[in-house]
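Entry 14. Two folds queued back to back today. First construct below, sequence then structure tokens.
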Amino acid sequence: MEDEGIDTADTTVERGSGNVFADLGLPDADAHLLKAGLVTRIDAIIRQRGLTQTKAARLLGLSQPDVSRLLRGDFREYSLERLFRLLTALGSDIDFVVRPPGSSPGRLRLAGTGTG
């Protein structure tokens, strides 16, 4: 079946950088990507444990509406430190690794072994 009404002659595809925040030209794009990764981990742990937002809120020291906003991606006002604290409240261990400088600029990166 052929698509009708879609003109692909002028369509170009551009490969992203791997960081949508940088691709959108937002400041502090690396930090935004890191925060998004941390919130994704928080969400995965909550789901894995079968916690309601109310139970998660009690564990995290937040209100249920705050948990809802956080899990919907409204985490701009959260610092990295606060997100780390939320993960540790859920029982996650967090390790920081600082490597010697290389030939390219430094970067922030989230690595891990899963959700718990």
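Second construct, same run, same settings:
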Amino acid sequence: MKLVYNVEDKPKFGQLIVFAIQQLLAIMAATLVVPVIVGNGMSPAAALFGAGIGTLVYVLFTKAKSPVFLGSSFAFLGSMAAAFAGGVSMALGYIGLIIGAVFAGLVYVVIAIIVKIAGVNWINRLMPAVVIGPTVAIIGLSLAGNAVGDLVTGNVLNADQVQLASPLICFVCGLVTLFTVILASSYGKKTAKLIPFIIGIIAGYAVASIFTVIGNICGIDALKVIDFSPFAKLVENGVSVKTFVSVPDFTFLTALKGTGELNGTYIGTIAVAYIPVAFVVFAEHIADHKNISSIIESDLLENPGLSRTLLGDGVGSMVGAFFGGCPNTTYGESIGCVAITGNASVATIIAAAIGAIIISFLSPFVAVVNSIPSCVMGGVCMTLYGFIAVSGLRMFKNIDLDQNKNLFVVSVILISGIGGLTLTFGKVTITPVAVALILGIITNLLLKNIKE
């Protein structure tokens, strides 16, 4: 595809700030929700800080050649929950989060060393385009249900935690966001084409605000889409520096209180919970980097090299979890943002990472992000996830689908991935994307020597 800004390009300062905010909006919702799902007092602001600093580590290891933001990984949700299982104290659980991220990161480090010695040709032979193409498509398609679910979801809940807004009203807000993004990206001038998500979110949020205000005035619950309570809490606390600037509850601060409880059995439990998942996420790491490589038309597995992307992802994940508790991973939302806007500037990624670190200390900005209704983000994600899927489909252009062996490989990957096939072994769950990739590799190995 034609890029407006290449990897090494540096937009003007004003543009850079706007582009960085757009990247943040693309990844922030998912990054903030992981600690909320895990619970146990984990801080979303700390997770955002961890994502920002983890991304800077990744950029450093990849020599500023890979335009991808790292965010909280959903693949480790079960592993993180295991850190608090069995009546474990919160302090010990926080130690477990850090130790687990170290275990996962070390898996990447070991694989990186192997790749450095053996090269990447074996990766290309194991995962040719016929395997990677449909797998990348699955990354987008497997998220389709999330986008569609969000499209009809508002943020205002009743006492029973059931949303008040009508799904139809939420759908309208989501469609306004979706079509605004599409129109801005397609018909907008240069600047509008580069920030379609910001324009779309503003439009969707404005419509949702109008519905919500009318609903509050007229007492119509079905129109109440946005939860404005985060702002109300800020006002209640009064205007002061402490209200607007607060230090996140960093994971390592709580973890220090539980060092006396640490024992070998617990460390072993954490190792079993994290290490197998790291191998699963490795497969997704390959697919993500093949995808972004196709977008920027430069093979990142060769330059800066898979060993460096793995080290950046692994060490960035360790550092991120030290502060925020969540292991990080390359984000499909970030890749989709690059694909749609044509902005592959690593300077934008760096600015977004620094922005994430700064914003984690600013309560009002976190409140603004938390108030964006799911339906608005659903409209944005319809395009983000769709572009990820299309990026994978673009890889099909060099695949001969008249050959049965290729048809079988693609069929197995698409059906198992779209069908949501997962495998669970104890506390370890292999995601649909990883299962699809593994089955695709096996099918390809079985059929690769057949001549048609």
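Quick look at the second one. The longest helix spans residues 264-296. The mean pLDDT is 86.
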